[in-house]
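COMPLEX REQUEST
Ligand: 2-keto-D-gluconic acid
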Amino acid sequence: MARPAILIARAVFPEVEHKLRQHFEVEAAPPGVVWSPSQLVERLQGKVGVLTTGGERIDAALLAACPQLKIVANLAVGFNNFDLPAMTAAGVLGTNAPDVLTETTADFGFALLMATARRVTESEHFLRAGQWKEWSLDLFAGAEVHGSTLGILGMGRIGQAIARRGALGFGMQVIYHNRSRLEPDKEAACQARYVGKDALFEQADHLVLVLPYTPAAHHTVGAAELARMKPTATLVNIARGGIVDENALVAALRERRIAAAGLDVFEGEPTVNPALLTVPNVVLTPHIASATIPTRTAMATLAADNLIAFLTEGRALTPLNPQVISA
Ligand code: 8YV
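STATUS: Structure written out below.
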């Protein structure tokens, strides 16, 4: 019997591709190649499964053009690139990659918070440009991190891991807002206190965004929310770019209505709003919060294991629409 054919939409590490080749006929994007939506549809012809990153949009049009497709395995925990109702309607399983990246992503959230509050990249640019002539008492004086108030918007696994770092490692008071309040034992484990959304913006010295991106979360942080923040506060976004109104943020940073921001995600990524590049008090990184080799390997492996489990045994490890399996 012919082996099922699958597509790897963006290059993964050789060991993950090798694992998939033991079960399937595999077509894989070469390293550095990013297919356009129409090229992706073309490559998907005859494929029953595809391993995607968060960068490939899976919507009703693509599903209609790829009727043989049965599973889309995202190697990201976020799945805002999926039109999940359309996938369910088409009988296509979607899987994501939770858990394996939690601690690594929380580490980076903290790194970005520290870099932003303590002006690490801004001062490095100054030094590299040969502008350091004298030491002075207030040279690149930043914001205190230890003992300050850490705000977290979106208190899932990554939010809780950031909270633990703040409370236990840096003696911070941790406040959070989430659609639903955590169970008391979970709140106690990360020493976090639930507050209303307005209070979160008003009280945080450092506010980290870790909420999932949905249409309802679009521009959760806009001019009104930024206006609530302290002029000394920093804002860090490691969730999705669309959560922040970038033009409103640029205005707030320029007018020093907040002190600084750290962004790992962007509204139009990989294109970056040119206005952001002109603002000195923002740290910009190219969506690397989960980027360590062990974690990226674990993410790709989990996606591969979902493809193998579903296409060989009809089950999945981390299904997003399990009703497709039972149907
Ligand atoms: C991924 C992420 O690296 O998992 C997620 O949701 O944002 C990142 O960890 C990225 O989305 C891969 O495309």
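REMARKS: DSSP finds 14 helices and twelve strands in the chain. The radius of gyration is 21 Å.
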